[in-house]
Amino acid sequence: MAVSSSSLFRLSLLLAAIVTACITLPVEKILKYFLIWIKQNLGPWGPLVLAIASIPLTILAVPASILPLGGGYLFGLPVGFVADSIGATIGATAAFLLGRTIGKPYVISKLKDYPKFQAVAIAIQRSGFKIVLLLRLVPLLPFNMLNYLLSVTPVGIVEYMLASWLGMMPITFALVYVGTTLKDIADVTHGWSEVSTSRWVRISTS
After folding, report:
1. Where are the domains of the chain?
2. What pTM, to 2 d.p., does this model score?
């Protein structure tokens, strides 16, 4: 189905607004207070809410490494790892589905910026699960952009979900473990806003 230029223009405006908001808002403070709120108010529901929070952050391509760090700090290794692993997988799948549907014109327009991805797309036709798994284990492309780039390949949704879940486990485990070693919640978010801003600039201009 053809997509009009006006629809593509409106999508571009929306993405620009999201990028601007994430750069200008005090994201570090917001996430810090969010983790404090989880710790003080949610009790056993905390891990579930932390997992759900991964979904919009991943869809908006906001670097979300603070969440597994926070999961480790708040809930320890086993619970934090399970919550963050599930949340990251659901978020990556939501971004994948968005890229395969209404976000497809934007994703296609970005393919030219990733020439190496052409070879990936061809390989996925032969072995989708293995290629997605390897891309998660060896991050040759930005994680959040990879969610969208893979959406325009023929990989099936079940293969994508399973391979992403398994492939993201090592980095999720490592971040959650680091979170368990932190002594204060301020250590979880310290310096995160500078990192997220620089990554947003690179993603939005790439």
Report:
1. 5-205
2. 0.74
